[in-house]
Amino acid sequence: GPASAEEYLAQLGPYDRTKRPACGNETVAGPTVVEVQFFLTQFNAVNQKLGQVKLHGYLRTWWTDPRLAFNSSCSDSITISEDFSSTSRPAFEKIWKPDLYIDNLVEYTQEGVDMLEIKPDGTVFMSSQLSFQVKSSINLAKLPYDEHICQIKVASYSHSASRMRVIPRRGMIGSGNSGIGLVAAPLTHAIWTIGPTTSGAGFETAGVAETVEFSSGSAWDYVSLQIPFARRPEYYIHQVIYPSLLFLLVSYLQFWVDPAIAPARSFLAVVPVLIQMSLQHTLYNGLPEGAQNMWLADWVMMTIYLCIIAACEFGLVQYLLSREQRHAANLAGLRKAREVADRLFKACNQDGLTLLEMLAECNAQEASAHPVPMAPSQQRAHQQGCRFQLPEESHASATDSRAVTATGPHGGPTLMRSHWRQCRDALKGEAAQEAKGGEEQRDPAAAPPSDEGSCEGGGAADDEEAPLPERIGRVKSERAVRCNLSEADLLFIQYTRGIFDRYDKDGSGRCQPSEVRQALTYFNIFLSTSETASVMGMFLRDEGQKTPCDELQLALSFDQFTLLLCKVNVYTVHAKSKGRGVGGLVARLQALAPSKRLDCLARMLSPAAVALMLPTFYLFLPLYQ
User: Fold this and answer.
1) CB-based contacts of 117-121 (< 8 A; 24+ apart in sequence)
2) pLDDT per residue over 318-338, tens digit each?
3) Which residue in 194, 275, 478, 581 is deepest, having the highest Cβ count within 10 Å?
Protein backbone atom coordinates (compact mmCIF):
# COMPACT_ATOMS: atom_id res chain seq x y z
CA GLY A 1 0.00 0.00 0.00
CA PRO A 2 0.96 3.69 -0.34
CA ALA A 3 3.18 5.17 2.32
CA SER A 4 2.35 8.85 1.57
CA ALA A 5 -0.31 11.00 0.01
CA GLU A 6 1.77 11.58 -3.09
CA GLU A 7 2.30 7.85 -3.54
CA TYR A 8 -1.37 7.23 -2.96
CA LEU A 9 -2.42 9.77 -5.57
CA ALA A 10 0.06 8.30 -8.03
CA GLN A 11 -1.38 4.82 -7.53
CA LEU A 12 -4.99 6.00 -7.70
CA GLY A 13 -5.29 5.31 -11.40
CA PRO A 14 -8.27 6.46 -13.49
CA TYR A 15 -10.79 8.37 -11.32
CA ASP A 16 -13.75 10.45 -12.47
CA ARG A 17 -14.32 13.18 -9.87
CA THR A 18 -17.55 14.25 -11.57
CA LYS A 19 -19.29 11.03 -10.59
CA ARG A 20 -20.49 10.46 -7.07
CA PRO A 21 -19.28 7.31 -5.28
CA ALA A 22 -21.02 4.00 -5.87
CA CYS A 23 -23.35 2.58 -3.29
CA GLY A 24 -22.87 -0.60 -1.37
CA ASN A 25 -23.92 -2.66 -4.43
CA GLU A 26 -21.06 -1.20 -6.42
CA THR A 27 -23.48 0.87 -8.51
CA VAL A 28 -24.85 4.39 -8.30
CA ALA A 29 -28.44 3.17 -8.29
CA GLY A 30 -28.86 4.20 -4.62
CA PRO A 31 -28.03 7.48 -2.88
CA THR A 32 -24.67 8.35 -1.43
CA VAL A 33 -24.80 8.91 2.32
CA VAL A 34 -22.92 11.98 3.60
CA GLU A 35 -22.57 12.69 7.32
CA VAL A 36 -22.04 16.27 8.52
CA GLN A 37 -20.94 17.84 11.79
CA PHE A 38 -19.75 21.27 12.93
CA PHE A 39 -16.98 21.73 15.48
CA LEU A 40 -17.55 25.14 17.16
CA THR A 41 -14.47 26.95 18.44
CA GLN A 42 -15.71 30.57 18.74
CA PHE A 43 -19.09 32.17 19.37
CA ASN A 44 -18.24 35.71 18.35
CA ALA A 45 -21.29 37.98 18.28
CA VAL A 46 -25.07 38.21 18.04
CA ASN A 47 -26.75 41.00 16.12
CA GLN A 48 -30.18 41.28 17.78
CA LYS A 49 -31.54 43.83 15.33
CA LEU A 50 -30.68 41.80 12.22
CA GLY A 51 -31.02 38.37 13.81
CA GLN A 52 -27.53 37.19 12.83
CA VAL A 53 -24.90 35.13 14.64
CA LYS A 54 -21.19 35.15 13.85
CA LEU A 55 -19.38 31.82 14.34
CA HIS A 56 -16.01 30.24 13.79
CA GLY A 57 -15.15 26.56 13.58
CA TYR A 58 -14.75 23.54 11.34
CA LEU A 59 -17.29 21.97 9.03
CA ARG A 60 -16.75 18.22 9.02
CA THR A 61 -18.08 15.71 6.50
CA TRP A 62 -17.86 11.91 6.14
CA TRP A 63 -18.68 9.67 3.20
CA THR A 64 -17.51 6.42 1.68
CA ASP A 65 -15.93 6.21 -1.78
CA PRO A 66 -15.01 2.56 -2.67
CA ARG A 67 -12.83 3.87 -5.48
CA LEU A 68 -10.44 5.32 -2.88
CA ALA A 69 -9.91 2.07 -0.91
CA PHE A 70 -6.30 0.92 -0.52
CA ASN A 71 -4.17 -1.74 1.16
CA SER A 72 -3.61 -0.89 4.79
CA SER A 73 -0.39 -2.83 5.18
CA CYS A 74 1.72 0.31 5.00
CA SER A 75 -0.60 2.97 6.52
CA ASP A 76 -3.83 3.15 8.49
CA SER A 77 -4.91 6.34 6.69
CA ILE A 78 -3.84 8.83 4.10
CA THR A 79 -4.02 12.53 5.09
CA ILE A 80 -4.09 15.25 2.44
CA SER A 81 -4.07 18.93 3.39
CA GLU A 82 -3.83 21.97 1.18
CA ASP A 83 -3.96 25.70 1.80
CA PHE A 84 -7.34 27.06 0.80
CA SER A 85 -5.76 30.25 -0.47
CA SER A 86 -3.49 28.34 -2.83
CA THR A 87 -4.22 28.79 -6.51
CA SER A 88 -3.40 25.13 -7.26
CA ARG A 89 -4.94 22.31 -5.24
CA PRO A 90 -4.30 19.12 -7.27
CA ALA A 91 -5.24 16.66 -4.52
CA PHE A 92 -8.59 18.27 -3.75
CA GLU A 93 -9.34 18.82 -7.39
CA LYS A 94 -8.75 15.15 -8.17
CA ILE A 95 -11.16 13.61 -5.64
CA TRP A 96 -14.98 13.82 -5.59
CA LYS A 97 -16.38 15.85 -2.71
CA PRO A 98 -20.03 16.51 -1.76
CA ASP A 99 -21.25 19.95 -2.89
CA LEU A 100 -22.62 21.06 0.48
CA TYR A 101 -23.71 24.60 1.28
CA ILE A 102 -25.16 26.45 4.27
CA ASP A 103 -28.73 27.38 3.47
CA ASN A 104 -29.05 30.26 6.01
CA LEU A 105 -25.61 31.70 5.29
CA VAL A 106 -25.26 35.51 5.37
CA GLU A 107 -21.51 36.00 5.07
CA TYR A 108 -18.79 33.44 4.55
CA THR A 109 -15.01 33.39 4.87
CA GLN A 110 -12.92 30.22 4.46
CA GLU A 111 -9.63 30.31 6.31
CA GLY A 112 -6.56 28.13 6.86
CA VAL A 113 -6.30 24.74 5.19
CA ASP A 114 -8.63 21.97 4.14
CA MET A 115 -7.86 18.45 5.24
CA LEU A 116 -8.79 15.08 3.77
CA GLU A 117 -8.29 11.80 5.60
CA ILE A 118 -8.85 8.58 3.65
CA LYS A 119 -9.22 5.21 5.36
CA PRO A 120 -8.26 1.91 3.74
CA ASP A 121 -11.92 0.97 3.23
CA GLY A 122 -12.52 4.17 1.26
CA THR A 123 -14.09 6.18 4.09
CA VAL A 124 -13.28 9.86 3.62
CA PHE A 125 -13.21 12.55 6.33
CA MET A 126 -12.95 16.22 5.26
CA SER A 127 -12.62 19.25 7.54
CA SER A 128 -12.78 22.91 6.43
CA GLN A 129 -12.05 25.91 8.67
CA LEU A 130 -14.81 28.52 8.32
CA SER A 131 -15.71 31.93 9.73
CA PHE A 132 -19.26 32.96 8.80
CA GLN A 133 -22.51 34.61 9.81
CA VAL A 134 -25.83 32.83 9.65
CA LYS A 135 -29.36 34.08 9.87
CA SER A 136 -30.95 32.93 13.11
CA SER A 137 -34.32 33.38 14.72
CA ILE A 138 -33.83 35.72 17.71
CA ASN A 139 -36.91 35.68 19.92
CA LEU A 140 -36.64 38.54 22.44
CA ALA A 141 -40.01 37.98 24.09
CA LYS A 142 -38.41 36.97 27.41
CA LEU A 143 -35.64 39.57 27.34
CA PRO A 144 -33.42 39.62 29.45
CA TYR A 145 -34.11 35.95 30.25
CA ASP A 146 -34.25 34.95 26.59
CA GLU A 147 -32.87 31.67 25.27
CA HIS A 148 -32.14 30.93 21.61
CA ILE A 149 -30.97 28.19 19.27
CA CYS A 150 -28.70 29.07 16.39
CA GLN A 151 -29.03 26.68 13.48
CA ILE A 152 -26.48 25.93 10.77
CA LYS A 153 -28.65 24.45 8.04
CA VAL A 154 -26.56 22.22 5.69
CA ALA A 155 -27.82 20.68 2.44
CA SER A 156 -26.57 19.42 -0.93
CA TYR A 157 -26.57 22.00 -3.66
CA SER A 158 -27.08 19.72 -6.70
CA HIS A 159 -28.10 16.27 -5.41
CA SER A 160 -31.61 15.48 -4.29
CA ALA A 161 -32.46 12.87 -1.68
CA SER A 162 -32.74 10.23 -4.38
CA ARG A 163 -29.02 10.58 -5.09
CA MET A 164 -27.56 11.86 -1.83
CA ARG A 165 -28.76 11.56 1.73
CA VAL A 166 -27.38 14.15 4.13
CA ILE A 167 -27.53 13.11 7.80
CA PRO A 168 -25.91 14.17 11.10
CA ARG A 169 -22.79 12.33 12.17
CA ARG A 170 -23.79 8.77 13.16
CA GLY A 171 -27.39 9.74 12.63
CA MET A 172 -30.38 8.04 11.07
CA ILE A 173 -31.50 8.52 7.49
CA GLY A 174 -34.73 10.51 7.28
CA SER A 175 -36.36 13.25 9.30
CA GLY A 176 -35.80 13.50 13.07
CA ASN A 177 -33.22 14.19 15.74
CA SER A 178 -30.29 11.82 15.73
CA GLY A 179 -26.54 11.55 15.86
CA ILE A 180 -24.15 14.28 16.86
CA GLY A 181 -24.65 17.38 14.78
CA LEU A 182 -22.48 19.81 16.74
CA VAL A 183 -19.44 19.53 18.99
CA ALA A 184 -18.25 22.59 20.89
CA ALA A 185 -15.04 23.31 22.70
CA PRO A 186 -15.27 25.02 26.13
CA LEU A 187 -16.58 28.51 25.44
CA THR A 188 -17.06 31.66 27.53
CA HIS A 189 -18.82 34.88 26.56
CA ALA A 190 -19.52 38.15 28.39
CA ILE A 191 -23.12 38.37 27.26
CA TRP A 192 -24.16 34.83 26.40
CA THR A 193 -23.98 31.42 27.99
CA ILE A 194 -23.12 28.93 25.23
CA GLY A 195 -24.53 25.43 25.49
CA PRO A 196 -27.19 23.74 27.57
CA THR A 197 -25.34 24.40 30.85
CA THR A 198 -23.75 27.43 32.45
CA SER A 199 -20.51 25.67 33.35
CA GLY A 200 -18.78 26.73 30.14
CA ALA A 201 -17.61 23.17 29.43
CA GLY A 202 -17.69 21.65 25.98
CA PHE A 203 -20.92 20.08 24.80
CA GLU A 204 -22.55 18.13 21.99
CA THR A 205 -25.97 18.50 20.41
CA ALA A 206 -27.93 16.21 18.13
CA GLY A 207 -28.53 17.05 14.54
CA VAL A 208 -32.02 17.63 13.18
CA ALA A 209 -32.66 16.13 9.74
CA GLU A 210 -35.59 17.18 7.59
CA THR A 211 -36.62 16.03 4.13
CA VAL A 212 -38.37 18.78 2.21
CA GLU A 213 -40.45 18.02 -0.84
CA PHE A 214 -40.76 20.68 -3.51
CA SER A 215 -43.46 21.27 -6.10
CA SER A 216 -41.26 19.70 -8.79
CA GLY A 217 -41.66 16.36 -7.04
CA SER A 218 -38.08 16.07 -5.83
CA ALA A 219 -37.09 15.91 -2.16
CA TRP A 220 -33.98 17.37 -0.54
CA ASP A 221 -32.34 16.67 2.79
CA TYR A 222 -31.60 19.54 5.21
CA VAL A 223 -29.60 18.97 8.40
CA SER A 224 -29.70 21.60 11.14
CA LEU A 225 -26.70 21.75 13.44
CA GLN A 226 -27.93 23.48 16.59
CA ILE A 227 -26.11 25.79 19.03
CA PRO A 228 -28.14 26.65 22.15
CA PHE A 229 -27.27 29.95 23.85
CA ALA A 230 -28.90 32.04 26.56
CA ARG A 231 -28.41 35.63 27.66
CA ARG A 232 -26.71 36.56 30.88
CA PRO A 233 -29.40 38.84 32.41
CA GLU A 234 -27.09 40.77 34.76
CA TYR A 235 -26.54 43.63 32.31
CA TYR A 236 -30.23 44.46 31.84
CA ILE A 237 -30.96 43.85 35.51
CA HIS A 238 -28.37 46.41 36.58
CA GLN A 239 -28.89 48.86 33.72
CA VAL A 240 -32.68 48.76 33.29
CA ILE A 241 -34.62 46.94 36.01
CA TYR A 242 -32.83 48.36 39.06
CA PRO A 243 -32.77 51.97 37.75
CA SER A 244 -36.46 51.81 36.88
CA LEU A 245 -37.25 50.70 40.43
CA LEU A 246 -35.05 53.44 41.90
CA PHE A 247 -36.81 56.14 39.90
CA LEU A 248 -40.13 54.70 40.98
CA LEU A 249 -38.88 55.31 44.51
CA VAL A 250 -38.02 58.92 43.59
CA SER A 251 -41.50 59.34 42.18
CA TYR A 252 -42.92 57.85 45.39
CA LEU A 253 -41.10 60.40 47.55
CA GLN A 254 -43.30 63.19 46.20
CA PHE A 255 -46.25 61.83 48.20
CA TRP A 256 -44.42 62.84 51.38
CA VAL A 257 -43.74 66.41 50.23
CA ASP A 258 -46.19 69.13 51.19
CA PRO A 259 -48.23 69.91 48.05
CA ALA A 260 -48.04 73.59 48.96
CA ILE A 261 -44.32 73.39 48.03
CA ALA A 262 -45.17 73.11 44.35
CA PRO A 263 -41.64 73.43 42.82
CA ALA A 264 -40.18 70.52 44.80
CA ARG A 265 -43.29 68.44 44.32
CA SER A 266 -43.43 69.06 40.57
CA PHE A 267 -39.72 68.18 40.22
CA LEU A 268 -40.23 64.82 41.91
CA ALA A 269 -43.33 64.21 39.79
CA VAL A 270 -41.99 65.08 36.33
CA VAL A 271 -38.29 64.14 36.35
CA PRO A 272 -38.85 60.36 36.90
CA VAL A 273 -41.17 60.30 33.88
CA LEU A 274 -38.53 61.91 31.67
CA ILE A 275 -35.79 59.58 32.90
CA GLN A 276 -37.95 56.50 32.40
CA MET A 277 -38.73 57.64 28.85
CA SER A 278 -35.01 58.08 28.21
CA LEU A 279 -34.38 54.61 29.63
CA GLN A 280 -36.96 53.14 27.29
CA HIS A 281 -35.39 54.94 24.32
CA THR A 282 -31.96 53.53 25.21
CA LEU A 283 -33.42 50.04 25.48
CA TYR A 284 -35.06 50.15 22.06
CA ASN A 285 -31.90 51.42 20.38
CA GLY A 286 -30.42 47.93 20.62
CA LEU A 287 -33.59 46.00 19.77
CA PRO A 288 -35.27 45.27 16.45
CA GLU A 289 -38.24 47.31 15.41
CA GLY A 290 -41.40 45.31 15.33
CA ALA A 291 -44.61 44.38 17.06
CA GLN A 292 -43.17 41.60 19.24
CA ASN A 293 -44.16 41.77 22.90
CA MET A 294 -41.10 41.85 25.11
CA TRP A 295 -41.09 41.25 28.85
CA LEU A 296 -38.50 43.94 29.56
CA ALA A 297 -40.23 46.48 27.32
CA ASP A 298 -43.51 45.85 29.15
CA TRP A 299 -41.67 46.24 32.46
CA VAL A 300 -40.28 49.63 31.47
CA MET A 301 -43.64 50.71 30.09
CA MET A 302 -45.35 49.74 33.34
CA THR A 303 -42.87 51.81 35.36
CA ILE A 304 -43.54 54.74 33.02
CA TYR A 305 -47.28 54.34 33.59
CA LEU A 306 -46.76 54.35 37.37
CA CYS A 307 -44.65 57.51 37.16
CA ILE A 308 -47.25 59.20 34.94
CA ILE A 309 -50.03 58.23 37.36
CA ALA A 310 -47.98 59.75 40.19
CA ALA A 311 -47.55 62.96 38.17
CA CYS A 312 -51.29 63.09 37.47
CA GLU A 313 -51.91 62.58 41.18
CA PHE A 314 -49.88 65.72 41.83
CA GLY A 315 -52.05 67.68 39.40
CA LEU A 316 -55.21 66.39 41.07
CA VAL A 317 -53.82 67.27 44.51
CA GLN A 318 -53.18 70.83 43.34
CA TYR A 319 -56.78 71.11 42.13
CA LEU A 320 -58.13 69.79 45.43
CA LEU A 321 -55.85 72.17 47.30
CA SER A 322 -57.31 75.13 45.43
CA ARG A 323 -60.81 73.96 46.33
CA GLU A 324 -59.83 73.63 49.98
CA GLN A 325 -58.49 77.17 49.95
CA ARG A 326 -61.83 78.44 48.63
CA HIS A 327 -63.69 76.47 51.30
CA ALA A 328 -61.35 77.85 53.97
CA ALA A 329 -62.23 81.33 52.75
CA ASN A 330 -65.91 80.46 53.24
CA LEU A 331 -65.32 79.60 56.89
CA ALA A 332 -63.20 82.73 57.40
CA GLY A 333 -65.98 84.85 55.91
CA LEU A 334 -68.55 83.21 58.16
CA ARG A 335 -66.43 83.85 61.23
CA LYS A 336 -66.06 87.50 60.22
CA ALA A 337 -69.88 87.62 60.09
CA ARG A 338 -70.03 86.33 63.68
CA GLU A 339 -71.29 89.72 64.90
CA VAL A 340 -74.10 89.66 62.35
CA ALA A 341 -74.99 86.11 63.38
CA ASP A 342 -75.09 87.16 67.02
CA ARG A 343 -77.49 90.00 66.22
CA LEU A 344 -79.69 87.65 64.25
CA PHE A 345 -79.76 85.06 67.03
CA LYS A 346 -80.57 87.79 69.56
CA ALA A 347 -83.44 89.06 67.41
CA CYS A 348 -84.67 85.50 66.93
CA ASN A 349 -84.73 84.93 70.68
CA GLN A 350 -86.59 88.19 71.28
CA ASP A 351 -89.23 87.63 68.60
CA GLY A 352 -89.47 83.84 68.97
CA LEU A 353 -88.43 83.21 65.37
CA THR A 354 -86.13 80.66 63.83
CA LEU A 355 -83.07 81.78 61.90
CA LEU A 356 -84.70 80.74 58.63
CA GLU A 357 -87.75 82.91 59.38
CA MET A 358 -85.51 85.79 60.38
CA LEU A 359 -83.55 85.50 57.12
CA ALA A 360 -86.83 85.55 55.19
CA GLU A 361 -87.84 88.82 56.87
CA CYS A 362 -84.40 90.34 56.26
CA ASN A 363 -84.47 89.63 52.55
CA ALA A 364 -84.97 92.48 50.11
CA GLN A 365 -88.68 93.08 49.34
CA GLU A 366 -90.64 94.23 46.36
CA ALA A 367 -91.68 97.92 46.23
CA SER A 368 -94.82 99.26 44.41
CA ALA A 369 -96.44 102.69 43.69
CA HIS A 370 -99.42 104.51 41.98
CA PRO A 371 -100.21 108.18 41.19
CA VAL A 372 -102.29 110.07 43.81
CA PRO A 373 -104.58 113.05 42.71
CA MET A 374 -103.70 116.21 44.62
CA ALA A 375 -106.18 119.01 45.51
CA PRO A 376 -104.90 122.54 46.23
CA SER A 377 -104.94 121.78 49.94
CA GLN A 378 -102.93 118.67 49.26
CA GLN A 379 -100.49 120.68 47.22
CA ARG A 380 -100.06 123.09 50.12
CA ALA A 381 -99.60 120.18 52.49
CA HIS A 382 -97.08 118.75 50.07
CA GLN A 383 -95.23 122.06 50.06
CA GLN A 384 -95.31 122.17 53.86
CA GLY A 385 -93.58 118.78 53.99
CA CYS A 386 -96.50 116.40 54.50
CA ARG A 387 -95.49 114.13 51.71
CA PHE A 388 -94.30 110.56 51.52
CA GLN A 389 -90.72 109.86 50.53
CA LEU A 390 -89.00 106.65 49.61
CA PRO A 391 -86.26 105.44 51.91
CA GLU A 392 -82.88 106.98 51.31
CA GLU A 393 -81.59 103.81 49.70
CA SER A 394 -84.28 104.02 46.97
CA HIS A 395 -82.95 107.37 45.72
CA ALA A 396 -86.54 108.63 45.04
CA SER A 397 -87.00 112.23 43.99
CA ALA A 398 -88.02 114.69 46.69
CA THR A 399 -90.85 115.90 44.46
CA ASP A 400 -92.10 112.42 43.56
CA SER A 401 -95.86 112.51 44.09
CA ARG A 402 -96.33 108.71 43.91
CA ALA A 403 -97.10 106.82 47.06
CA VAL A 404 -94.88 103.75 47.59
CA THR A 405 -95.73 100.56 49.40
CA ALA A 406 -93.58 97.51 50.18
CA THR A 407 -94.87 94.02 50.64
CA GLY A 408 -93.56 92.08 53.59
CA PRO A 409 -92.35 88.48 53.60
CA HIS A 410 -95.94 87.23 53.97
CA GLY A 411 -97.52 89.66 51.41
CA GLY A 412 -99.04 92.04 54.05
CA PRO A 413 -98.71 95.87 54.15
CA THR A 414 -95.70 97.23 55.96
CA LEU A 415 -94.57 100.55 57.34
CA MET A 416 -94.42 102.21 53.93
CA ARG A 417 -98.08 101.59 53.08
CA SER A 418 -99.11 102.65 56.61
CA HIS A 419 -97.21 105.93 56.18
CA TRP A 420 -98.98 106.60 52.89
CA ARG A 421 -102.41 106.12 54.54
CA GLN A 422 -101.50 108.51 57.38
CA CYS A 423 -100.54 111.22 54.88
CA ARG A 424 -103.82 110.74 53.03
CA ASP A 425 -105.88 111.11 56.26
CA ALA A 426 -103.99 114.27 57.21
CA LEU A 427 -104.75 115.82 53.83
CA LYS A 428 -108.47 114.97 54.22
CA GLY A 429 -108.62 116.79 57.55
CA GLU A 430 -107.06 119.93 56.18
CA ALA A 431 -109.45 119.98 53.22
CA ALA A 432 -112.53 119.66 55.49
CA GLN A 433 -111.43 122.61 57.66
CA GLU A 434 -110.88 124.79 54.63
CA ALA A 435 -114.36 123.94 53.31
CA LYS A 436 -116.07 124.82 56.63
CA GLY A 437 -114.29 128.18 56.95
CA GLY A 438 -115.19 129.11 53.38
CA GLU A 439 -118.95 128.54 53.87
CA GLU A 440 -119.10 130.99 56.79
CA GLN A 441 -117.49 133.81 54.77
CA ARG A 442 -119.11 133.11 51.45
CA ASP A 443 -121.52 135.65 49.90
CA PRO A 444 -124.80 133.96 48.96
CA ALA A 445 -124.96 135.94 45.70
CA ALA A 446 -121.49 135.11 44.85
CA ALA A 447 -120.72 132.65 42.18
CA PRO A 448 -120.16 129.10 43.27
CA PRO A 449 -116.55 128.23 43.82
CA SER A 450 -114.75 126.27 41.19
CA ASP A 451 -114.09 122.61 41.59
CA GLU A 452 -110.38 123.27 41.71
CA GLY A 453 -110.63 125.36 44.89
CA SER A 454 -113.53 123.50 46.40
CA CYS A 455 -112.64 121.70 49.59
CA GLU A 456 -115.54 119.39 48.96
CA GLY A 457 -114.20 118.45 45.62
CA GLY A 458 -110.83 117.92 47.18
CA GLY A 459 -112.33 115.91 50.01
CA ALA A 460 -114.34 113.79 47.69
CA ALA A 461 -111.26 113.09 45.70
CA ASP A 462 -109.36 112.28 48.83
CA ASP A 463 -112.11 110.01 50.10
CA GLU A 464 -111.78 107.80 47.07
CA GLU A 465 -109.76 104.62 47.54
CA ALA A 466 -106.33 104.76 45.97
CA PRO A 467 -105.80 102.43 43.03
CA LEU A 468 -103.75 99.24 43.50
CA PRO A 469 -100.02 100.03 43.52
CA GLU A 470 -97.76 99.18 40.64
CA ARG A 471 -94.38 97.38 41.14
CA ILE A 472 -91.34 99.59 40.72
CA GLY A 473 -88.42 97.49 42.26
CA ARG A 474 -86.96 96.01 45.44
CA VAL A 475 -86.00 97.74 48.68
CA LYS A 476 -84.51 96.80 52.03
CA SER A 477 -86.98 95.17 54.38
CA GLU A 478 -88.22 96.74 57.59
CA ARG A 479 -86.49 93.97 59.59
CA ALA A 480 -83.13 94.62 57.95
CA VAL A 481 -83.47 98.35 58.63
CA ARG A 482 -84.39 97.78 62.24
CA CYS A 483 -81.51 95.33 62.81
CA ASN A 484 -79.08 97.53 60.88
CA LEU A 485 -78.19 94.72 58.48
CA SER A 486 -76.91 95.10 54.94
CA GLU A 487 -77.39 92.45 52.29
CA ALA A 488 -73.61 91.90 52.23
CA ASP A 489 -73.77 90.95 55.91
CA LEU A 490 -76.12 88.09 55.08
CA LEU A 491 -74.17 86.57 52.16
CA PHE A 492 -72.21 83.98 54.14
CA ILE A 493 -75.25 83.04 56.22
CA GLN A 494 -77.26 82.59 53.03
CA TYR A 495 -74.41 80.42 51.66
CA THR A 496 -74.51 78.35 54.85
CA ARG A 497 -78.22 77.91 54.36
CA GLY A 498 -77.69 76.63 50.81
CA ILE A 499 -75.16 74.06 52.02
CA PHE A 500 -77.47 72.96 54.84
CA ASP A 501 -80.43 72.55 52.48
CA ARG A 502 -78.28 70.52 50.08
CA TYR A 503 -77.64 67.83 52.68
CA ASP A 504 -81.05 68.03 54.34
CA LYS A 505 -82.25 65.51 51.80
CA ASP A 506 -85.45 64.53 53.57
CA GLY A 507 -86.49 68.18 54.02
CA SER A 508 -86.94 67.72 57.76
CA GLY A 509 -84.90 70.79 58.61
CA ARG A 510 -82.42 68.66 60.56
CA CYS A 511 -79.16 66.96 59.54
CA GLN A 512 -77.70 63.75 60.90
CA PRO A 513 -73.95 63.40 61.76
CA SER A 514 -73.11 61.91 58.35
CA GLU A 515 -74.87 64.81 56.63
CA VAL A 516 -73.29 67.39 58.92
CA ARG A 517 -69.87 65.87 58.18
CA GLN A 518 -70.38 66.38 54.45
CA ALA A 519 -71.69 69.91 54.96
CA LEU A 520 -68.64 70.82 57.06
CA THR A 521 -66.33 69.94 54.16
CA TYR A 522 -67.60 73.06 52.34
CA PHE A 523 -65.99 75.07 55.12
CA ASN A 524 -62.70 73.13 54.99
CA ILE A 525 -63.54 71.19 58.15
CA PHE A 526 -62.88 67.47 57.83
CA LEU A 527 -63.99 65.02 60.47
CA SER A 528 -65.01 61.40 60.50
CA THR A 529 -68.66 60.57 61.10
CA SER A 530 -67.92 59.50 64.67
CA GLU A 531 -65.92 62.68 65.32
CA THR A 532 -68.75 64.78 63.89
CA ALA A 533 -71.27 63.09 66.20
CA SER A 534 -68.96 63.71 69.18
CA VAL A 535 -68.58 67.40 68.28
CA MET A 536 -72.35 67.74 67.87
CA GLY A 537 -72.90 66.16 71.28
CA MET A 538 -70.43 68.50 73.02
CA PHE A 539 -71.97 71.53 71.32
CA LEU A 540 -75.55 70.63 72.20
CA ARG A 541 -74.65 69.93 75.81
CA ASP A 542 -72.88 73.28 76.03
CA GLU A 543 -76.10 74.83 74.73
CA GLY A 544 -77.96 73.26 77.64
CA GLN A 545 -79.59 70.36 75.77
CA LYS A 546 -79.68 66.74 76.74
CA THR A 547 -78.08 64.30 74.25
CA PRO A 548 -78.69 60.55 73.79
CA CYS A 549 -76.07 57.95 74.65
CA ASP A 550 -75.75 57.02 70.99
CA GLU A 551 -74.48 60.30 69.57
CA LEU A 552 -74.99 59.05 66.01
CA GLN A 553 -78.72 59.67 66.62
CA LEU A 554 -78.15 63.41 67.06
CA ALA A 555 -79.43 65.95 64.56
CA LEU A 556 -78.90 69.69 64.14
CA SER A 557 -81.29 72.36 62.94
CA PHE A 558 -80.08 75.19 60.71
CA ASP A 559 -79.85 77.54 63.69
CA GLN A 560 -77.70 75.05 65.58
CA PHE A 561 -75.58 74.25 62.52
CA THR A 562 -74.82 77.94 61.92
CA LEU A 563 -73.97 78.54 65.56
CA LEU A 564 -71.74 75.44 65.57
CA LEU A 565 -69.85 76.75 62.54
CA CYS A 566 -69.09 79.98 64.38
CA LYS A 567 -67.34 78.11 67.19
CA VAL A 568 -66.42 74.77 65.61
CA ASN A 569 -62.68 75.35 65.99
CA VAL A 570 -63.13 75.07 69.77
CA TYR A 571 -64.45 71.51 69.44
CA THR A 572 -62.09 70.21 66.72
CA VAL A 573 -58.73 71.14 68.27
CA HIS A 574 -58.10 67.67 69.75
CA ALA A 575 -60.42 65.66 67.51
CA LYS A 576 -58.79 62.35 66.59
CA SER A 577 -60.21 59.36 64.78
CA LYS A 578 -60.12 56.09 66.65
CA GLY A 579 -60.73 52.54 65.58
CA ARG A 580 -58.99 49.62 63.98
CA GLY A 581 -59.35 47.66 60.83
CA VAL A 582 -61.16 48.90 57.77
CA GLY A 583 -63.57 51.05 59.80
CA GLY A 584 -60.71 52.84 61.53
CA LEU A 585 -58.95 53.40 58.21
CA VAL A 586 -62.10 54.88 56.68
CA ALA A 587 -62.55 57.15 59.71
CA ARG A 588 -58.96 58.39 59.47
CA LEU A 589 -59.36 59.08 55.76
CA GLN A 590 -62.60 60.98 56.36
CA ALA A 591 -60.80 63.20 58.86
CA LEU A 592 -58.28 64.29 56.20
CA ALA A 593 -58.66 67.01 53.60
CA PRO A 594 -59.16 65.59 50.07
CA SER A 595 -55.63 66.60 48.99
CA LYS A 596 -54.07 64.93 52.03
CA ARG A 597 -56.43 61.97 51.69
CA LEU A 598 -55.27 61.44 48.12
CA ASP A 599 -51.62 61.64 49.18
CA CYS A 600 -52.30 59.20 52.01
CA LEU A 601 -53.89 56.71 49.62
CA ALA A 602 -50.99 57.14 47.19
CA ARG A 603 -48.51 56.42 50.00
CA MET A 604 -50.28 53.15 50.71
CA LEU A 605 -51.18 52.04 47.20
CA SER A 606 -47.95 52.93 45.39
CA PRO A 607 -45.72 50.44 47.31
CA ALA A 608 -48.48 47.87 47.05
CA ALA A 609 -48.60 48.34 43.27
CA VAL A 610 -44.83 47.88 42.94
CA ALA A 611 -44.84 44.89 45.30
CA LEU A 612 -47.61 43.35 43.20
CA MET A 613 -45.88 44.19 39.92
CA LEU A 614 -42.65 42.35 40.77
CA PRO A 615 -44.05 38.82 41.33
CA THR A 616 -46.72 39.29 38.67
CA PHE A 617 -44.18 40.03 35.94
CA TYR A 618 -42.00 37.09 36.91
CA LEU A 619 -45.06 34.87 37.20
CA PHE A 620 -46.13 35.72 33.66
CA LEU A 621 -42.62 35.46 32.21
CA PRO A 622 -43.16 31.89 30.88
CA LEU A 623 -46.21 33.12 28.95
CA TYR A 624 -44.10 35.38 26.74
CA GLN A 625 -43.44 33.45 23.56
Assistant:
1) 117/77, 117/78, 117/79, 117/80, 118/8, 118/68, 118/70, 118/77, 118/78, 118/79, 118/80, 119/76, 119/77, 120/1, 120/69, 120/70, 120/71, 120/72, 120/76, 120/77, 121/64, 121/69
2) 999 999 998 888 888 777 777
3) 194
